[in-house]
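Thought: the user asked what Putative tetratricopeptide-like helical domain, DYW domain-containing protein looks like in 3D. I have the sequence; next I should run the structure tool and report back without guessing.
Action: structure_tool
Action Input:
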Amino acid sequence: MSTTATNFPSGLKPLEFSTESTSKLSQKRVLDILNKKCFNSLQHLRQVHSIILRTGHFQDHYVSGTLVKCYANFHFNNFALAIKVFDQIPMPNVFVGNIVLKGSLENGEPHEAISCYHKMVLLDSKPNKFTYPTLFKACAITGSVKEGIQFHSHAVKHGLSGDGHIKSAGIQMYASFGLVKEARKMLDERGETDAVCWNAMIDGYLKCGEVEAAKDLFGCMPYRNVGSWNTMISGLARCGMVENARTLFNDMDERDEISWSAIIDGYIKQGCFKEALEVFHKMQREKVKPRPYSLPSVLTACANLGALDQGRWIHSYVKRNSFKVNAVLGTALIDMYAKCGRLDMAWEVFEKMRVKEVSTWNAMIGGLSIHGRVEEAIELFKKMQEEKLKPNDVTFVSVLNACAHAGMVESGIALLNSMNRVYGIEPKIEHFGCVVDLLGRAGLIEEAEKFIESMTVKPNAAIWGALLNACRIHGNVDLGEKIGWILLDMEPQNSGRYALLSNIYAKAGRWDDVTRVRKLMKGRGIKTIPGSSMMSLDGRVHEFKMGDGSHTEMKSIYAMLESIMEKLRMEGYSPNTSIVSFDIEEEEKETTLKQHSEKIALAFGLIHTEPGTTLHIVKNLRVCEDCHSAFKLISQIFSREIIMRDRVRYHHFRNGMCSCKDFW
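Observation:
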């Protein structure tokens, strides 16, 4: 852009300046126009820029600095223009320099902040206390250790290192480098040391895994604020010590909304979704109103528990409070509805979102994929590209999974081959795993083996696991045995690998080998993950485990189970006992199958819902063949739609059929 341009862009009306001549505009008036008229209008900004050049106000650092600040507005997505203007300012002072430093971070250009500071030094522009916090943050983001240490020495040289804001930013920077000793030295330096500095040091210790040091510092703080407690709670949870974090949370005399969000996030990151939702309910009982930024985490808990009622309440809360549904919140809502079996509501949120990021499209494509709506998933993938959005790694995992579950071999292979050639994305191990799964599920076991041999990366346990599952599906005992023992060497603590190999042997009637696998498990101290199923009713999540009699309504649940089994037998159902251990009587095998957690959850749902109500069940493991067959019949006998999410995919049981077409 020329600095001597005086003409307005064609078709654009000049800004109204009453009757005053632009040549007589005062500094105060120019600043007022920049701050009020140009913040969201690039066209108006260019007009005023032209006027500033003609009137000589560009020499005034407050005017030129404010002009740079307006160009640096991240809504314009043109930070390079702000830098061009900055480069034309004669001898810019620290006010102008600090504006560029701040704008660099706001526009995601931290390296530009470091470069700008170098220019400031060359121009002998003396920094002030607002310069270094931004610089330290830029160094932390970019991992610029050498520059960060230099800038700290500059702050000391200029007598600014004792400032509280500079101290806390420096502590955070050193901690991000893993240099906790240097961070602690900065804390102990003379000058302002408020709670913010102490909190920064505690956070640094925890991020570097030095939990005891963090506890000691927290214990000896001269003054703690709510932020101190929140820092400890977040840090402990991040270190996997969520119960310790909960103890601290319970000990707090005063909590703010961040305190509640910290413990909820902590539970979610450890996979304790039920506990996270319980804390959220406690938060509601104590009349604490959640803010928009905390809702995506709670929606994650709802999604993983299948807690549709709670998820819908949150959506309603968003509407009642007129919260803006940004990309993060909207994506969380889509993911929650999809994982709770309500693709229609997920689609409604997706359609109404004004701003959709790649993650938003991924959530919708992934939702369609896991529900077996393959054609729609692929169609949305195409539409995403029509909207000029570039797919990423996650997008391809979702679409490849869709192809795998639908048996679309050619489409899946073509998609993998297009990743690098068309989209410039190098396939990763996850994408290769999807293709092995695709070939294996389609019964192309030999092709899957050859594909693994041709891979450019070394196959990991997930790759071999996909092929082992294919051997289970198609009864390839010999190859399954070979891969199974490879996996037991690779992941000796993974109970699922033992269970899958044992099931392959059991289906083949090789009971001696089943015994051998189980003895190995026992010798290694490996325990199987107990099957559990959850159902959300009336805002409460009910969890059931296989053979568990602890539920208060278990007597009526078992009575309903007996009624269900009787009706199934009348329809010709016969329990598939081949998957149960051989060393118990046939009657006991049937009892074992009857007490699978998903059947218990189903019986509970039939008792507590009106006829015709859709039942939603979430299971932590893959649904067994017997339960899958039984659920198809139950959907027909009781005229119910049953939506079950197992570890692999979603199953929509309706009128005696399943959406997976017995392919899971």
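Thought: the tool returned a structure. Summarizing for the user.
Final Answer: Structure for Putative tetratricopeptide-like helical domain, DYW domain-containing protein predicted. The chain is about 65% helix and 5% strand. Strands lie at 532-537, 540-545, 615-619, 642-645, 650-654, 657-658.
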